[in-house]
Amino acid sequence: MLLARYQHELLEAGCDEAGRGCLAGPVFAAAVILPHDFEHELLNDSKQIAEDLRYTLRAEIEERAIAYAVAWADNMEIDEINILNASFLAMHRAVEKLHLQPEFLIIDGNRFNKHHKIPHACVVKGDSKYLSIAAASILAKTYRDDYMKQIAAEHPEYDWHNNKGYGTLKHRKSILKNGYTPYHRRSFSVSFEEDGLLVQVL
Description:
Radius of gyration: 18 Å
CATH superfamily of the largest domain: Ribonuclease H-like superfamily/Ribonuclease H
């Protein structure tokens, strides 16, 4: 069972991101404040949960959370400030969108840029340890998936409705054949092996 709180004195929000390792699309982030008595035996890191269950959990999180918000940084911002800083920026934006401002943040991972004067703690694999971070991972993942499915209709040859912008072989080969779209991250290298040769897209 995941833990409800990192600390018990301050109003706490969990934060996580989705799409950090993709070749296309924004990085999404969510911030979630859950009730003190929130429990859920199925809630876990979004990567460990089937897609249909993620959407079921999203509805429950949105219904039961004290506050939640989702935000993103687009591919141009990622190229400008790098993916790590863009992930932090997306989290900052999610926290700012909360209608109730938290007094403490718990962040999935081992690094974070402090947001204003809100104290925080970084938790490695926090999305499998704390309910609020797991909830944030569910929201960030499902909202990003929805976005990628939407823009997939504009560029069906990249198979985003299936790969969600991640660097599958089909996606990388499509970049080689068709070039970049306005949604691609130009600062990410794209390569694959074919017939024993390394093919790289510059």
